[in-house]
Automatic annotation (TrEMBL):
<feature type="transmembrane region" description="Helical">
    <location>
        <begin position="331"/>
        <end position="350"/>
    </location>
</feature>
<dbReference type="GO" id="GO:0005886">
    <property type="term" value="C:plasma membrane"/>
</dbReference>
<feature type="transmembrane region" description="Helical">
    <location>
        <begin position="427"/>
        <end position="448"/>
    </location>
</feature>
<dbReference type="InterPro" id="IPR020846">
    <property type="entry name" value="MFS_dom"/>
</dbReference>
<feature type="transmembrane region" description="Helical">
    <location>
        <begin position="199"/>
        <end position="221"/>
    </location>
</feature>
<protein>
    <submittedName>
        <fullName>Multidrug MFS transporter</fullName>
    </submittedName>
</protein>
<dbReference type="InterPro" id="IPR036259">
    <property type="entry name" value="MFS_trans_sf"/>
</dbReference>
<feature type="transmembrane region" description="Helical">
    <location>
        <begin position="78"/>
        <end position="98"/>
    </location>
</feature>
<dbReference type="InterPro" id="IPR004638">
    <property type="entry name" value="EmrB-like"/>
</dbReference>
<feature type="domain" description="Major facilitator superfamily (MFS) profile">
    <location>
        <begin position="13"/>
        <end position="456"/>
    </location>
</feature>
<feature type="transmembrane region" description="Helical">
    <location>
        <begin position="356"/>
        <end position="381"/>
    </location>
</feature>
<keyword id="KW-1133">Transmembrane helix</keyword>
<feature type="transmembrane region" description="Helical">
    <location>
        <begin position="9"/>
        <end position="31"/>
    </location>
</feature>
<keyword id="KW-0472">Membrane</keyword>
<keyword id="KW-0813">Transport</keyword>
<keyword id="KW-0812">Transmembrane</keyword>
<feature type="transmembrane region" description="Helical">
    <location>
        <begin position="167"/>
        <end position="187"/>
    </location>
</feature>
Amino acid sequence: MTARPIDSALWRTAAVLVLGTFMATLDSTIVSVGVDTLADEFGAPVTGVQWVTTAYLLAVVTAVPASGWLADRFGGRRVWLTAVVVFLLASLLCALAPTLPALIAFRVLQGLAGGLLPPTGQALLARAAGPDRIGRVISVVGLVPLLSPVLGPMASGTILAVADWPWLFYVNLPVGVVAVILARRWVPASEPGGKGDRFDFRGALLLSPGLAVLVFGLTWFERGTPVVAGIAVAVGVVMLAAFVRHGLRAEAPLLDPRLFTRPPFGVAALALVLLGASVFGTMFLLPLYLQRGPGLSTWDTGLLLVPQGIGAAAGSVLVNRLVDRISPRTLVLSGIGLVALGTAPFTQLGPGLPDWVIVLSLLLRGFGAAMIGAPVMTIVYRRVEPARLPRAAGALNLLNTLGGSIGTAVLAVVLQARLAARGPDVAAAFADAFWCVLGLAVVAVAGATRLPRAGAAAPDKKRGHADA
């Protein structure tokens, strides 16, 4: 059967929903370049100001697991619109924050709202597109999370060059207002699931705080407090283990652990975790090296990272043309190969590595990353019946977020250890850390070989529940 064409109405819906994802993902990185500026403004140490970013990421991790239940209970569009409004209010409060603790508190509120936007938007989009069109649509809108690690630092550097720090948050206001106005007109309403499931409070008290404590602990290893970090990691692991036990017994858990045992969700989950770790991990390591090693300015560093965004855009065009024609596994394996090929030169960082090699490597990495995320999400969304899309979207976005957060934290720990071991040879320490990034690609290949050879068809009504 010939796939339906993507009409203008669906593209309008996608364009509106992607604005929410754009705001949420951009704000995860936009403050990174402004850390020194905020430290001067509030008279605080850099380690304290870093919580402006860390608090946002922890709040996102906390909010994502609840997105599926909220969409089922109140309807996807209503949850999405509410999240945008709260995100705008939090952005305004961040811009007006009188003290650093107030700014961190408002960033938590902003992260809680931002964590709901990508999964709820993806579920709405998957429902509007249907199984036969979701692959082509997601290949385009899935580009936004790949661009945010590049665009965030560039936007921050540009804003701080011409305006004061509050504009890092004011910039969200016009985007969000436009998104709310257009969503009420162009995003189809979605009724609540009507299942009547009670909110899994026990699961929420174990999963979201467990993930947040785990990420918190990993970030503190980098700051030289191993005792605090070790205790936090241990507590996080215990809480997550308790959640898994609870999830296997509960009738309607916040996130069903059995989901990861059902093909192709398990290997798709592994691919998304590793993709998040690789993309965000590299965007943590490389800018830091370029400023510490060659001594580039923040603006020059941002410009040197642009090729990854260009590669991701080109890759999304290719995926859009091929996602319905060739095996998803072929696309994903090819993408992992390109990411690995683009990472290999970074294991040889040093004064002798020309800029053109970095540019070419980032092009390859961006192109390859676009060939992984969209096909993986397409495989899962095509196998999930419409009623279970919010839960699936929440799980997928949680995995990608965790991959980025935990991957970055682990690489920071590795980098800190290698800097201590290598002494003044900064380039060698960063090169050692990139060997870990390359290792992620090897693990990803092992998982991707188990993806389906052919594209998955629409969910079978009789077994849709099991496949979801």
